[in-house]
Amino acid sequence: MSRVTVPIGPQHPLLKEPIALRLDVVGERVVAAEIEIGYVHRGLERLLQGRTFQQGVAVVERICGICSHAHTTAYCQAVEALIDVDLPPRAAAIRTLLCELERLHSHLLWLGVLSEAIGFTTVFMYAWRDREQVLDAMELISGGRIAHGANVVGGVREDVSPAQAREVLTMLRQLETQLGLYQELVERDRSFHRRTRGIAVLSAAQVQAYGVVGPMARASGATLDIRRSAPYAAYGWLEVPAAVTNEGDVWARAWTRVQELQHSIDLCRTLLSALPAGPLARRVAERVQAGEAVSRVEAPRGELFYYVRSEGERTAARVKARTPTLPALLAMAELLPGLQTGDIAAVVAGCDLCMACADR
Amino acid sequence: MSERPVWWQAVEAAVGAPLAVDAVGGGEAVIDVAAERLLATVSALRQAWPALHLTAITGLSIGGEVVLLYHLLLDGGLTLRVRCPGAPPNAPSLAPSWPAANWYEREAHDLLGVAFKGHPNLAPLLVARDWTGGPPLLPVEGER
């Protein structure tokens, strides 16, 4: 059989965002894969240079439409480390609450995208309907579904009133009922297993070689979770369970995320039941002393890293973000060869790519 | 420093000189490594910690010089700071021995024009293929 190159993207119904896959196939089998990115590169790191540290919050929030709050959390943490300011406990708790709500909606979005890719439209509809409830809760707290504008350097801008807390708790109760459906899907559904079990297995050695992070790494036996290894914001007061399994296939990536959905619901409940009293933010000076700081947070897709450098001015000298999609893409290029073409959609969707994050 | 971190001995042997450690905001350590000792240092660290994680490579332009920061994670964060001499700035490539570095190096090549010696493919990653404006993070003449 002859070798044929199949171009997928940068515009393609399989893809939610632009990326170019060039797959060499022989018959129905992929023999080589090449990935090109950069189609949504907006030069945001360049844009951040010369902005004030507070203006930077609005810019990094717009890097990603899914994990916008993780970006501002990581960025604010780095600037707060430069200023050497302590986060008030109430601010830490609200920041963390939004991080966990964001994880809920990101994992539900992913479950929907994967289900649609393998032809399971019912689960796609359910997952995205449930995700709407989480977005409503985030909107209730922050006023925004996607860009929350909740973080500022030194704290948060949005408070959570007792009435809001009750409403969010009601949403979490409803979501937990739905979660049983997803758990059953992952544990027992035969057609789901047939499309995901043993597909695109990522080994622990590959996780290390490509620097893969987050649920994708935890589905391959890696234990890295910044919430556990280097607790930030309010994670130091919380017990974050590990959702780790060794299978490394698409199924394991679903299993890990469904476990984490339950964990996030529990963490949100713990936070809402005992929100500490106190101020929402510390006053900070606009000028930041010279220095450099790094910050790591566990975004829904994995470790998100920021580096911020100040030269003693009102504006940032350099801001660098490394998002979890970059190593996932590197690993995906290794996973595609050897697959049947019918499995490409499941694997690409299963890697939980965010091109806006990767390209910045 | 009262208690030395776990990586001290391995890094000192690879660097071949007494270590001077800077602390960076966020509680992570930074050490200077000469460009020609980078591969040996990373290889020694990876041998000592098979689970060593390469988080990112940050490229900086400071006073006309390009500096690369290799952000690693073992049981805490550790950053290797490498000054890149020459014009265009150059550094040895980690990518052949550690694929995780592949795209981070391409990004530093895109944004700061760093030539990584030994890199398998330094094609543009983020900037457009027909971009002729020069590396976006290098200072432009007349601009601060």
Most strands sheet of chain A: 3 strands, antiparallel
Mean pLDDT of chain A: 92
CATH architecture grouping of chain A: Orthogonal Bundle
| Low-pLDDT windows of residues of chain B | none
Domains of chain B (count) = 1
Report the count of strand segments of chain A.
8
- Per CATH, the class of chain A reads Mainly Alpha
CATH top-level class of chain B: Alpha Beta
At CATH level 2, the architecture of chain B is 2-Layer Sandwich
Largest interface: A-B, 42 and 37 residues
Number of strands of chain B: 7
Strand percentage of chain A: 5-15%
Structural class of chain A: alpha+beta
Compute the CA-based radius of gyration of chain A: 20 Å
- Helix amount of chain A: 40-55%
Report the structural category of chain B: alpha/beta
Q: Which percent band covers the strand fraction of chain B?
A: 25-35%
CATH fourth-tier homologous superfamily of chain A: Cytochrome-c3 Hydrogenase, chain B
Could you describe the 3D structure shown?
The complex is a heterodimer of chains A (360) and B (144). With 360 residues, chain A is of the alpha+beta class. Chain A has one domain (43-324): Cytochrome-c3 Hydrogenase, chain B (Orthogonal Bundle). Chain A has helices at residues 44-48, 53-61, 68-83, 89-117, 121-142, 162-188, 190-196, 204-210, 214-218, 226-229, 250-273, 325-335, 344-350, 355-359, and strands at 3-8, 20-26, 29-36, 151-152, 155-156, 291-299, 302-310, 316-322. The longest helix of chain A is centred in the N-terminal third of the chain and has 29 residues, at 89-117. With 144 residues, chain B is α/β, with parallel strands linked by helices. In chain B, the strands form two sheets. Chain B has a five-stranded mixed β-sheet with strand order 1-2-5-4-3, covered by helices on one side. In chain B, α1 (8-15) packs antiparallel against α2. The interface between A and B is large, with 42 and 37 residues.
